[in-house]
């Protein structure tokens, strides 16, 4: 008869266990799905603005409310932040933690400047009586531009969180994957903003 003796150590071993493993490819695939869903959200907001963008209800028109020089400066802030994030990714590939953090910090400052200028624009419009409640045009304008600004704000919070993780844990595989995901998100917001700038501001000022 086979020996049925089981030691204490053997009895404490789990019969079934789940290996703590997270495939990097699954993270990137899931993040691409998220970006596609976000693209659909912005597509709906652009379509809504296209329908309501001329419903002024006797209120101010884009020519009367939009300040192209301010928006051009804001656009420059966001585009520069995308360039500096690219520098951060290059330093990450070189495994230079200090320079990676430096460029991430510069990116965050450009992002904060972008959000600050956008809030300044919104507060100025509201002070002039051109708030989102004034007309369908202004409602769609504030919703589209504000949703993008909210995304940038979330990106800044994400950026600060990742900087803390890099400072503590370095440029390991997990943090590299997270920085890559944020890079995709940040450049995605740049592309969306180019659409906003062209459709809302440039066409609005010319229309």
From TrEMBL:
Any one of the GO CC terms: plasma membrane
Instruction: Cite the SUPFAM superfamilies for this sequence.
Output: Cytochrome c oxidase subunit III-like
Q: Which keywords does this chain's UniProt record carry?
A: Cell membrane, Electron transport, Membrane, Oxidoreductase, Transmembrane, Transmembrane helix, Transport
Q: Where in the cell is it found?
A: Cell membrane
Q: Name one GO biological process term.
A: aerobic electron transport chain
Q: What is its main location?
A: membrane
Q: Where are the transmembrane segments?
A: 31-56, 68-88, 100-117, 137-163, 184-204
Q: Which InterPro entries match?
A: Cyt_c/ubiquinol_Oxase_su3, Cyt_c_oxidase-like_su3, Cyt_c_oxidase_su3-like_sf, Cyt_c_oxidase_su3_a-hlx, Cyt_c_ubiqinol_oxidase_su3, Ubiquinol_oxase_su3_dom
Presence of the UniProt keyword Electron transport in the record: yes
Q: Can the keyword Secreted be found in this entry's annotation?
A: no
Picking any one GO molecular function of the record gives: cytochrome-c oxidase activity
Topology relative to the lipid bilayer, per the entry, is:
Multi-pass membrane protein
Report the superkingdom from the record.
Answer: Bacteria
> In this protein, which residues make up the domain named Heme-copper oxidase subunit III family profile?
29-205
Query: Which family is it part of?
Result: Belongs to the cytochrome c oxidase subunit 3 family.
State the oligomer form and interacting partners: Heterooctamer of two A chains, two B chains, two C chains and two D chains.
The role this protein plays is:
Cytochrome bo(3) ubiquinol terminal oxidase is the component of the aerobic respiratory chain of E.coli that predominates when cells are grown at high aeration. Has proton pump activity across the membrane in addition to electron transfer, pumping 2 protons/electron.
Please give the name of this protein: Cytochrome bo(3) ubiquinol oxidase subunit 3
Q: Which organism is it from?
A: Pararhizobium mangrovi
């Amino acid at each position: 008869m086979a020996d049925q003796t089981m030691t204490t150590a053997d009895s404490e071993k789990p019969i079934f266990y789940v290996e703590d493993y997270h495939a990097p490819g699954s993270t990137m695939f899931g993040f691409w799905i998220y970006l596609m869903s976000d693209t659909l959200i912005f597509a709906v907001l652009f379509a809504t603005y296209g329908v309501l963008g001329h419903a002024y209800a006797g209120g101010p028109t884009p020519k009367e409310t939009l300040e192209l020089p301010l928006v051009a400066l804001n656009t420059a802030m966001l585009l520069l932040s995308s360039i500096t994030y690219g520098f951060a990714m290059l330093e990450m590939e070189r495994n230079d933690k200090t320079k990676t953090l430096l460029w991430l910090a510069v990116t965050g400052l450009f992002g904060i400047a972008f959000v600050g200028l956008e809030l300044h624009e919104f507060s100025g419009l509201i002070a002039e009586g051109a708030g989102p409640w004034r007309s369908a045009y202004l409602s769609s304008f504030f919703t589209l531009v504000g949703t993008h600004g909210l995304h940038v704000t979330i990106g800044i919070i994400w950026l600060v969180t990742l900087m803390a993780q890099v400072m503590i844990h370095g440029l390991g595989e997990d943090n590299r994957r997270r920085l890559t995901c944020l890079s995709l998100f940040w450049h995605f917001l740049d592309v969306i903003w180019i659409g906003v700038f062209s459709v809302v501001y440039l066409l609005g000022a010319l229309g």
